[in-house]
Design goal:
Layout lengths: L4 E4 L3 H13 L5 E4 L22 H4 L4 H8 L2 E3 L4 E5 L4 E4 L2 E4 L2 E4 L3 E3 L18 H11 L4 E5 L3 H10 L4 E6 L11 H9 L4 E5 L3 E7 L2 E6 L4 E4 L1 E4 L3 E3 L13 E3 L10 E3 L4 E3 L7 H15 L13 E3 L6 E5 L7 E7 L2 E8 L2 E9 L14
Parallel strand pairs: 1-2, 1-7, 2-3, 7-18, 9-10, 9-15, 10-11, 17-19
Antiparallel strand pairs: 4-5, 5-6, 8-16, 12-13, 13-14, 20-21, 21-24, 22-23, 23-24
C-alpha cells in the first residue's frame, strides 16, 4: 500500500492542495491534520463578517466530514502535531505515529501581538481562523467601543467593517493608514471615507486592563481609551514550531518546487518563504497549491507567480494594487477624476506598480508592469 500524503493544516493552502492533488491522483491516501475544526471557509471574509451579521456557521462552506467525503480524504480535526521524525518519515500527532510518503507543512502564520502590559493582554482578540472569529463575534455583542491595533490591510478592512455599527479607534505606529502599501493620497482618501473612525497614528498601545466588563487602553502618549473590545491586526508571523530540522528564515525556506531542506517535505502558504518572500495572499497560495500538486503527482513543477494584484476590501473606497507600491526609489504620477484615481509608480522610467482607488480599475496595467 502506498504511504499517504500527509498535509498539516486545513486552511486555504492545505485544502487547495488536497483538492488539486486528488484531481491528479485518485489512489494515494491523503491525510489532513487540522489544529482547528477542519471547516472549509473563505478566510478573507472574516474581516467583513460583522457588517454582514455573519456567524461562523454562516461562513462555513463545508465541514470536515464533508471535505473528507467529497475529496476522498482522511481529515483529523482538533489534532495537535507534537513532533516530526524526518529520518523515519513519521508525524507524531496526539500520541499516534503517522507514516508519510510526502509531507506538506501548510501550517499558516500566527497573529503578531505587540508587547503590552496589563491584566487583560490575554483577552486581546485576533482574527486568523474560525475559532478566533467566534470569540470576536461574541465580544462584539457586548458593547459598542472597539480599539483596533494596526493600520495595515486587515486593520483597514476591520475598521471599515466595524465602523458601520461600532465606535472605532484605530491605533498604529505609522503615520497613516496602509502606510507600507499605498501612497499618501490613497491613504487619505480611504480615511476620508471613514469619518466615524478615530485615528491614533504615530502611537501604540502600552497597557490594557480590565475595568468591570470593559477595558482601559493606555497609549504611549498617555491617552487612555475605554473599550468593550480590543482587536489586534498588527501582522502575521509564519508558524515555525514544527520546523526544527528545516532551514528557515522568516518562514520555512523552500525552492521553486516548494521543497524544504528535508527530502519528501514541502511547505506551502503563509509559513513558506520562497525567493526571500512570504506571500500571505490567496492568489500566490492557490498558484503554489496547483504547482505542488503536479510535483507530488510525479511531475516536478516550479511555481510561477507572475504579476499578482492585491485588493483591499473596503467597499466605500475600494483599492487595487500591484507591483512595487512602496519604496524611496519610486517616482509617482497621479491620474485623478471624479470616479477615483490611479497612481502609477515608476522606476528608471519603467512602470513598476500601480494603485487604483475609488471607482477606477487598474487591472489593464498589469501587462505593462516591469518584470520582477
Amino acid at each position: 500500500m502506498r504511504k499517504p500524503l500527509v498535509i498539516i493544516g486545513s486552511g486555504h493552502a492545505g485544502y487547495s492542495l488536497a483538492r488539486a492533488f486528488r484531481q491528479r491522483d485518485a489512489r494515494t491516501p491523503v491525510i489532513v491534520l487540522s489544529r482547528d475544526g477542519g471547516e472549509l471557509y473563505p478566510k478573507p471574509q472574516l474581516s467583513h463578517g460583522f457588517s454582514r451579521s455573519l456567524s461562523a456557521e454562516a461562513l462555513t462552506q463545508t465541514d470536515a466530514p464533508g471535505m473528507a467525503s467529497e475529496w476522498k480524504l482522511m481529515v483529523r480535526p482538533r489534532t495537535r502535531v507534537e513532533d516530526i521524525d524526518f529520518g523515519s518519515r513519521i508525524v507524531i500527532a496526539d500520541g499516534a505515529r503517522i507514516p508519510y510518503g510526502d509531507l506538506v507543512l501548510a501550517v499558516g502564520a500566527e497573529p503578531f501581538v505587540p508587547p503590552m502590559q496589563g491584566n487583560a493582554v490575554g483577552e486581546v482578540l485576533t482574527l486568523n481562523d474560525l475559532d478566533q472569529y467566534r470569540r470576536y463575534r461574541e465580544r462584539l455583542d457586548r458593547g459598542d467601543r472597539v480599539v483596533v491595533i494596526g493600520g495595515g490591510l486587515i486593520g483597514a478592512e476591520l475598521a471599515h467593517d466595524l465602523s458601520e455599527g461600532k465606535r472605532v479607534t484605530l491605533v498604529d505606529v505609522g503615520d497613516r493608514l496602509l502606510e507600507r502599501l499605498v501612497p499618501e493620497v490613497v491613504s487619505l482618501g480611504l480615511q476620508d471615507r471613514l469619518p466615524g473612525v478615530a485615528w491614533r497614528f504615530g502611537n501604540r498601545v502600552e497597557r490594557i486592563d480590565r475595568v468591570g466588563a470593559a477595558y482601559r487602553v493606555e497609549l504611549a502618549d498617555g491617552e487612555a481609551l475605554e473599550a468593550d473590545a480590543v482587536v489586534c491586526a498588527a501582522g502575521l508571523r509564519p508558524r515555525l514550531e514544527l520546523a526544527a530540522g528545516l532551514e528557515t528564515g522568516r518562514g520555512i525556506l523552500v525552492d521553486a518546487c516548494l521543497r524544504t531542506s528535508q527530502p519528501h517535505v514541502f511547505a506551502l502558504g503563509d509559513c513558506a518563504e520562497i525567493d526571500g518572500r512570504v506571500l500571505p495572499f490567496l492568489q500566490p497560495i492557490s498558484l503554489s497549491a496547483q504547482a505542488l500538486a503536479h510535483t507530488l503527482a510525479g511531475e516536478p513543477t516550479p511555481v510561477r507567480f507572475g504579476r499578482m494584484p492585491v485588493a483591499v476590501k473596503t467597499p466605500r473606497y475600494p483599492i487595487q494594487l500591484a507591483g512595487a507600491t512602496h519604496g524611496e526609489d519610486l517616482a509617482w504620477t497621479l491620474d485623478e477624476n471624479s470616479d477615483g484615481l490611479i497612481a502609477r509608480s515608476w522606476r528608471d522610467g519603467r512602470l513598476a506598480g500601480f494603485v487604483a482607488a475609488g471607482g477606477r480599475n487598474g487591472m489593464a496595467l498589469l501587462s505593462e508592469l516591469e518584470d520582477d
